[in-house]
């Protein structure tokens, strides 16, 4: 091949491959973190099903999901936890090595009725790795405020009382920073997809 032919070939090759090379070199921008900078999360001390103290900082280095509810809840909490943990199971089946980096947590907002035994049994009903937490009213209140979880005791009736509360399930990163609200109002598949999007 003479020099003129080589130059023509090089120009043609570059014209054909340059767009692909540019696309290959162009890095995909990371997805925007929905809760970036939000004042959600913070240190707390509660107790687990055995009465052992558990601190938020103990989970440093792990991704975390956290939901505030109560075990006597007749509908919302069991529904939300079922969707959340079915989604986590799907994520666990599809990505076991990533799911191992996630610690799911359930925190009661009804410590008067939810002792260690109650939160332990409630958590075990949804997933063996879900940790149920309770504490004194002051400890629970401090944790709820740190995670912007609203709750209020309803009126006493002959059948007891209900708790009015917010229904967010947060995904927190290994540094304890908020990443996203998991779509427990949609489906387990949506929850699994959101976990797959962020957990690394």
CATH H-level superfamily title: Glutaredoxin
Name of the CATH class: Alpha Beta
Order of helices and strands: HEEEHHEHEHEEEEH
**Number of helices, where a helix is a run of at least 4 consecutive DSSP H or I residues:** 6
The total number of structural domains is 1
Write the layout of secondary structure elements.
Blueprint: H1 3-25, E1 45-47, E2 53-55, E3 63-69, H2 76-94, H3 96-99, E4 102-108, H4 116-124, E5 131-133, H5 137-146, E6 151-153, E7 163-165, E8 169-172, E9 178-181, H6 188-198
Helix pairs in contact: 2-6
Keywords:
single chain; 200 residues; alpha/beta; Glutaredoxin; 5-stranded mixed β-sheet; two-stranded antiparallel sheet; 6 helices; 18% strand; globular
Describe the structure.
This protein is of the alpha/beta class and 200 residues long. The chain has a single domain (45-198), classed as Glutaredoxin, CATH 3.40.30.10. Helices cover 38% and strands 18% of the residues. It has helices spanning 3-25, 76-94, 96-99, 116-124, 137-146, 188-198, and strands at 45-47, 53-55, 63-69, 102-108, 131-133, 151-153, 163-165, 169-172, 178-181. The strands form three sheets. Strands 5-4-3-8-9 form a five-stranded mixed sheet, with helices on both faces. Strands 1-2 form a two-stranded antiparallel ribbon. Strand 8 (169-172) and strand 9 (178-181) form a beta hairpin. Helix 2 crosses helix 6. The radius of gyration is 24 Å and the shape is globular. Mean pLDDT is 90; it is low at 5-10 and 12-25.
């Amino acid at each position: 091949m003479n020099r003129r032919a080589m130059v023509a070939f090089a120009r043609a090759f570059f014209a054909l491959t340059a767009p692909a090379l540019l696309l290959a070199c162009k890095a995909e921008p990371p997805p925007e973190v929905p809760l970036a900078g939000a004042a959600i999360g913070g240190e707390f001390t509660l107790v687990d099903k055995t009465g052992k103290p558990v601190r938020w900082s103990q989970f440093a280095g792990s991704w975390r999901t956290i939901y505030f509810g109560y075990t006597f809840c007749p509908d919302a909490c069991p529904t939300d936890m079922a969707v959340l943990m079915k989604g986590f199971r799907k994520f666990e089946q599809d990505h076991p090595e990533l799911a191992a980096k996630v610690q799911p947590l359930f925190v009661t907002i009804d410590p008067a009725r939810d002792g260690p035994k109650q939160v332990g049994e409630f958590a075990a009903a949804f997933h063996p790795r879900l940790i149920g937490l309770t504490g004194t009213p002051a400890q629970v209140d401090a944790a709820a405020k740190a995670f912007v979880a609203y709750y209020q005791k309803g009126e006493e009736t002959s059948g007891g009382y209900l708790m009015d509360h917010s229904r967010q399930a947060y995904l927190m990163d290994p540094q304890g920073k908020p990443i996203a609200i998991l779509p427990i109002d949609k489906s387990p598949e949506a929850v699994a997809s959101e976990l797959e999007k962020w957990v690394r």
